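Quick illustration, no need to memorize.
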Amino acid sequence: MDAATALVVGSSDRRAEPVRVLRQALGYAWSVVIAADPGRGWPRFVAWSKRDDPDVAWLVRENLKKNRLQRLDLRL
Protein backbone atom coordinates (compact mmCIF):
# COMPACT_ATOMS: atom_id res chain seq x y z
CA MET A 1 0.00 0.00 0.00
CA ASP A 2 2.86 2.35 0.78
CA ALA A 3 4.47 1.70 -2.58
CA ALA A 4 1.22 2.19 -4.50
CA THR A 5 0.43 5.39 -2.63
CA ALA A 6 3.96 6.64 -3.25
CA LEU A 7 3.46 6.02 -6.99
CA VAL A 8 0.47 8.36 -6.98
CA VAL A 9 2.27 11.02 -4.94
CA GLY A 10 5.42 10.78 -7.04
CA SER A 11 3.68 10.85 -10.39
CA SER A 12 4.55 13.74 -12.67
CA ASP A 13 1.15 13.46 -14.40
CA ARG A 14 -1.53 12.67 -11.86
CA ARG A 15 -4.25 13.10 -14.49
CA ALA A 16 -2.88 10.21 -16.54
CA GLU A 17 -5.30 7.30 -16.74
CA PRO A 18 -3.10 4.74 -14.91
CA VAL A 19 -2.49 7.14 -12.02
CA ARG A 20 -6.16 8.06 -11.81
CA VAL A 21 -7.21 4.41 -11.74
CA LEU A 22 -4.60 3.61 -9.08
CA ARG A 23 -5.81 6.53 -6.96
CA GLN A 24 -9.41 5.27 -7.22
CA ALA A 25 -8.32 1.77 -6.20
CA LEU A 26 -6.45 3.15 -3.21
CA GLY A 27 -9.58 5.06 -2.23
CA TYR A 28 -11.05 1.63 -1.52
CA ALA A 29 -8.09 -0.63 -0.77
CA TRP A 30 -6.51 1.06 2.24
CA SER A 31 -9.61 0.36 4.33
CA VAL A 32 -9.62 -3.31 3.29
CA VAL A 33 -5.98 -3.71 4.30
CA ILE A 34 -6.49 -1.90 7.61
CA ALA A 35 -9.55 -4.00 8.45
CA ALA A 36 -7.56 -7.16 7.77
CA ASP A 37 -4.58 -6.12 9.90
CA PRO A 38 -5.16 -2.91 11.87
CA GLY A 39 -1.92 -3.26 13.81
CA ARG A 40 0.16 -2.97 10.67
CA GLY A 41 -2.13 -1.02 8.34
CA TRP A 42 -3.39 1.73 10.62
CA PRO A 43 0.01 3.21 11.57
CA ARG A 44 0.99 3.44 7.90
CA PHE A 45 -2.34 5.03 7.01
CA VAL A 46 -1.94 7.57 9.84
CA ALA A 47 1.55 8.41 8.57
CA TRP A 48 0.16 9.06 5.09
CA SER A 49 -2.69 11.13 6.51
CA LYS A 50 -0.16 13.66 7.82
CA ARG A 51 1.14 14.38 4.33
CA ASP A 52 0.19 17.71 2.77
CA ASP A 53 -0.96 16.30 -0.55
CA PRO A 54 -4.41 16.69 -2.12
CA ASP A 55 -4.52 13.14 -3.50
CA VAL A 56 -3.50 11.64 -0.16
CA ALA A 57 -6.10 13.80 1.59
CA TRP A 58 -8.71 12.41 -0.80
CA LEU A 59 -7.56 8.82 -0.16
CA VAL A 60 -7.80 9.36 3.58
CA ARG A 61 -11.29 10.90 3.38
CA GLU A 62 -12.60 8.15 1.11
CA ASN A 63 -11.27 5.34 3.29
CA LEU A 64 -12.49 6.87 6.53
CA LYS A 65 -16.04 6.79 5.10
CA LYS A 66 -15.95 2.99 4.86
CA ASN A 67 -18.04 1.06 7.38
CA ARG A 68 -15.24 -1.47 7.85
CA LEU A 69 -13.08 1.27 9.37
CA GLN A 70 -15.90 2.88 11.30
CA ARG A 71 -16.57 -0.46 12.99
CA LEU A 72 -12.95 -0.56 14.17
CA ASP A 73 -13.45 2.84 15.84
CA LEU A 74 -9.97 4.07 14.88
CA ARG A 75 -9.17 7.76 15.21
CA LEU A 76 -6.67 9.92 13.38
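The chain has a mean pLDDT of 96.
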